[in-house]
Design goal:
Number of helices: 8
Largest sheet: none
Distance between the termini: 47 Å
Helix content: over 70%
Oligomer: single chain
Number of strands: 0
């Protein structure tokens, strides 16, 4: 069982540039329908490939622009402070997630304990994501984030001219994910309707 710490600053920034990577995460958690698994895997692989390229371009852009890196760190600090003002405890929660991640790798933890730990881990992770989303609705956070995104996107474009093309590809992948989800829901609805029809 894999434990994943919530996305870091660099992943969050790339996610914001392509709307959100969390839509891909939600898509991956949906139950697969017959015949759809191969298509889902293909789309997820494309998403991972494009996201990896964007993260690498962003990493290089940040290394070449110390002021931009400072701006990003200031934004992250603002988001954390806003989360705390709203009642969240992001630093303590993240530390707890890291502890669970380490404990889960211990051979002394049995399967039942690991499953219970995974459930608690997932709940806390979701709480952190929701708290971060709430903080992102703050007016000051939105202003600073928009400023940083504009600067970050320009720096990435200067670093690698493929940036806009990769972002467009990521947006198209997300549209494909949404279309597949809609098809799955439609198929589920049709199957339920057929199952509820009275026998002749």
């Amino acid at each position: 069982m894999t434990f994943k710490i919530p996305v870091s600053l660099s992943h969050t920034l790339v996610a914001s540039l392509v709307t959100t990577v969390f839509s891909g995460m939600a898509f991956a958690q949906e139950p697969a329908q017959p015949g759809s698994a191969q298509g889902q895997a293909s789309i997820e692989q494309k998403a991972q490939r494009v996201q990896s390229q964007l993260i690498e371009i962003q990493r290089e852009a940040l290394e070449e622009n110390p002021e931009l890196r400072d701006q990003g760190e200031a934004l992250e600090a603002l988001i954390t402070a806003t989360m705390e003002e709203q009642g969240a405890t992001p630093e303590a929660d993240t530390q707890r997630l890291q502890e669970w991640q380490q404990q889960a790798q211990s051979p002394d933890v049995d399967q039942a304990e690991r499953q219970e730990m995974a459930a608690e881990f997932q709940q806390l992770q979701q709480d952190l994501i929701r708290a971060r989303q709430m903080a992102a609705e703050d007016e000051e956070v939105q202003t600073k984030q928009a400023e940083f995104q504009t600067a970050m996107l320009q720096a990435m474009q200067d670093q690698d001219p493929r940036t806009e093309e990769l972002l467009a590809e990521m947006r198209e992948i997300q549209l494909q994910q949404q279309r597949q989800l809609q098809q799955q829901f439609q198929q589920q609805g049709e199957q339920q309707s057929q199952g509820q029809q009275p026998a002749q």
